[in-house]
Design a protein that fits this description.
Blueprint lengths: L3 H4 L2 H10 L4 H5 L12 H14 L1 H21 L4 E9 L9 H4 L10 H12 L2 H11 L13 H8 L4 H7 L2 H7 L1 E5 L5 E8 L2 H59 L10 H32 L12 H21 L7 H92 L5 E5 L12 H26 L8 H6 L3 E6 L10 H6 L10 H4 L4 H14 L6 E6 L6 H14 L4 E5 L7 H4 L8 H6 L9 H4 L1 E2 L5 E4 L8 H6 L2 H10 L4 E5 L8 H6 L4 E7 L5 H13 L4 E9 L1 H6 L8
Parallel strand pairs: 5-12, 6-10, 6-11, 7-9, 7-10, 11-12
Antiparallel strand pairs: 1-3, 1-4, 2-3, 8-9
């Protein structure tokens, strides 16, 4: 058993903070709420075991009913046989003979394998394919195909319903689809076909017939698609051929009318001639400009100072010869006189050559002028020719536009015609090829054993259904009558220690033997004073057992005792616990906090003219009042009592005042233990208000009366506001049950 130091957490700190002067509501803000139903797995298994023990007869009945139902279902179910086969959806090689361009129904290149397989699965279940199977096998005439009319169908047949409406509800294709399963295998190209029927041979025939008809349907679909292409393209081809001939005729007529002569390239003859004239004109213009500049330079320069580049080669040669002759004359002049025949002859040569040079210099301007005039005349002729040719090209350009338009139309018609002709030829090839992309892996055979009913499975399901029904029913019945009966159940539902179990009974039941119960004639003992009046009874010992839990639990000084609902024995428990502590020499104070229905003053025979309500209503300081003036001593040594006091309409106002905290602090200084008897927590808020003045709370539950949910809710309300629940006490427990749990040990 855990001590309170391990259980209280922040709430114990709250109580100590309040005793130290910290306001209660200020500390409560940071106190978290903790769940109270956090039980261990073993506790839940123990609850289940007790539930099965209590409702074992109902559970056995439910299991038996489930087994009978499973056996009946097996006996009355019509045997069903299942037959199946597998198809491999291979897909066609559309690249073979470029079939993807020929067949309009060919799958695109980016079509995934999963989508292709799923498409084939959908086609297998289409009405068209299923009707082919029905007509091929004549299924409506086969025994075992049409369902037998049940009771409801027989009654419907007797009603005045039109036959057409009845037939619509029994279409053969719907019946076939109802018992047919077509499913692709994951991550593969395998498609499995399964059919169920009461006739094993019919099941195999349907599966094989569906596979064959599916393959035939695919072949016919591809063949029809190719034939349709050829049939549609034939008339289109003739129309395109006529359109092509018309375009060629229009182009020829337009070319002849415009007089267009085309060269080997894309240009006309006029354009090519214009380009040649333009090129010649540019050359002539350049030559004329060059000769004109030379002529002007020669005409404007002196005759003797022409640039060397403009001098003719003959002039340069004569000048060189003249220079050489003058050099020779100079050499002879140094040796001979001017009359010497050598000098005279050389001088004659010099004069002759000099005259020739001067003559040639005078003819140079005439030469360059003639060349300039010739270049200018050629340029003017080429310019005139260019203007005439440009006018011709401009005229033909307008005709060329219409020519090009007709030419493009001709090329388009020729291309369309050739492409269509090629498609017609390819469609003829495709119609001769009959590929199939589906392969039957293995033909279906008639099953030997029925698929349904499965006797072991039906019995197992019946057993499981009966067990589940029994558990649910037992839990429902038990919950509707659920109360705490035996020790340990409180700990399982609240998750706090169970401090003890108090046996039930009056004075006669305090003794263990029936003989003493018959012979004892003493007056009945009050249960509230059982620990004091019968110190060696099982009841008093049970309170001392609870006392042991209090004595060794840590720093417990004040405890609030309450219950979830009225009439659960909280006043009996708090009275006996206080008496048991007083018997061992402890100073104990018992406070009657039930201001609405006080009883402690009656139990201990004390007046109720002055008590807790009076103290809380006073204005004087609590610390100034002596303890002897606040409490009354009872007939039990060491036990004092603070009655509830006169009734008042301001109960909540008094309990919420700070005087209650001051009063508890004052009492802790003079008493070892302080007990508060509080009203039921689910009826009034008094218990939670008084709980902040105590160190912990004890919740009392009554056996065979208190429901676990009420105890759990009571504990949750305390823990919600940070008040620790120290433990629970099970009151008024049957002694026979206590004997089974080890509480029946007797002594003398």
């Amino acid at each position: 058993m855990k001590s309170l130091n391990q259980l209280e957490g922040p709430a114990s700190n709250l109580a100590r903070a309040e005793r130290g002067g910290v306001p209660a509501m200020q500390t409560l803000i940071d106190v978290p709420y903790t769940a109270v139903d956090d039980r261990s797995e073993w506790a839940r298994f123990a609850d289940l075991g007790r539930l099965l023990s209590r409702r074992k007869r109902f559970l056995m009945f439910a299991v038996s009913l489930g087994l009978i139902g499973g056996a009946a279902a097996t006996h009355w179910t019509t045997p069903v046989y299942r037959s199946s086969t597998s198809l491999e959806v291979q897909g066609l090689n559309e690249d073979f003979l470029d079939l993807r361009r020929i067949d309009s129904s060919a799958q695109p290149a980016n079509f995934s394998a999963e989508s292709f397989v799923q498409t084939q699965v959908d086609i297998l279940q289409d009405d068209v394919v299923l009707d082919r199977v029905i007509n091929r096998l004549k299924l409506p005439e086969r025994a075992g195909f049409m369902p037998k009319p049940g009771v409801i169908a027989a009654l419907a047949g007797s009603l005045p319903i039109p036959q057409s409406q009845q037939d619509d509800n029994l279409r053969p294709v719907d019946i076939l689809r109802e018992h047919l399963v077509v499913a692709p295998a994951p991550h593969s190209r395998i498609v499995r076909i399964t059919y169920e029927s009461s006739d094993p041979l019919l099941a195999a025939d349907v599966v094989n017939g569906l596979a064959d008809e599916f393959i035939s349907y695919n072949l016919e679909a591809r063949l029809n698609a190719a034939n349709q292409v050829g049939q549609w393209l034939g008339p289109q081809l003739e129309e395109m051929k006529a359109r092509l001939a018309q375009s060629e005729a229009e182009l020829t007529t337009s070319s002849q009318a415009a007089g267009l002569l085309l060269s080997a390239g894309t240009e006309s003859v006029a354009e090519e001639r214009l380009r040649n004239v333009q090129r010649e004109l540019a050359t002539a213009q350049g030559d004329r400009i060059s000769k004109e500049s030379t002529y002007r330079m020669v005409s404007e320069s002196p005759a003797d100072s022409l640039p060397a580049a403009l001098e003719p080669a003959s002039l340069k040669e004569n000048r060189a010869k003249l220079t050489d002759l003058r050099r020779q004359r100079a050499e002879l002049s140094s040796l001979y006189t001017d009359d010497n025949y050598r000098v005279v002859r050389l001088q004659a040569q010099i004069d002759e050559l000099d005259a020739a040079v001067q003559t040639e210099i005078r003819t140079i301007p005439k030469k360059y002028r003639s060349e300039y005039q010739a270049a200018l005349g050629r340029e003017m002729m080429l310019a005139k020719n260019y203007n005439a040719q440009a006018a011709t090209v401009s005229q033909q350009a307008r005709e060329r536009i219409r020519y090009e338009s007709l030419k493009r139309a001709l090329e388009d018609n020729r291309q369309i015609y050739q492409s269509t002709l090629q498609k017609v030829k390819e469609a003829g090839i495709a119609s001769a090829i009959k590929p199939s992309g589906v392969r039957i892996i293995g033909a279906a055979t008639a099953p030997v054993r029925p698929f349904r009913p499965n006797a072991p499975l039906n019995l197992g399901l019946g057993l499981l259904s009966g067990l589940c029904l029994g558990l649910v029913g037992a839990a429902t019945i038990d919950r509707s009558k659920r109360v705490v009966r035996v020790p340990g159940e409180l700990r399982a539902c609240v998750n706090v220690p169970e401090l003890g179990a108090i046996p039930s009974g009056t004075y006669q039941s305090l003794y263990a033997t029936p003989r003493r119960m018959l012979l004892d004639t003493r007056p009945q003992v009050s249960m509230e004073l059982a620990t004091w009046q019968e110190k060696h009874s099982p009841i008093s010992e049970s309170f001392r057992e609870v006392l042991a839990s209090l004595m060794y639990s840590g720093s417990i000084q004040s405890l609030l005792v309450t219950s979830a609902a009225p009439m659960e024995g909280k006043t009996t428990i708090v009275s006996n616990l206080a008496i048991a502590l007083a018997e061992i020499g402890k100073r104990v104070l018992l406070i009657d906090g039930d201001l609405r229905k006080p009883r402690l003053h009656e139990i201990f025979d004390q007046p109720n003219t002055w008590g807790l309500s009076t103290v809380l209503a006073e204005k004087d300081s609590i610390q100034e009042l002596p303890v002897s003036a606040l409490v009354r001593k009872t007939s039990i040594p060491g036990l004092s009592l603070l009655p509830a006091g006169p009734s008042t309409e301001q109960i909540s106002t008094l309990l919420y005042s700070s005087r209650m905290q001051d009063l508890m602090t004052h009492f802790r200084q003079d008493f070892d233990y302080v007990f508060l008897d509080a009203p039921p927590v689910l009826r009034f808020s008094d218990a939670r208000v008084l709980g902040h003045a105590a160190d912990a709370v004890i919740i009392v539950a009554r056996a065979n009366k208190t429901a676990p949910d009420t105890v759990r809710e009571a504990a949750a309300r305390f823990q919600m506001v940070g008040i620790p629940v120290f433990g629970t006490i099970l009151n008024d427990c049957d002694q026979r049950v206590l004997g089974q749990y080890g509480y029946g040990y007797q002594y003398r």
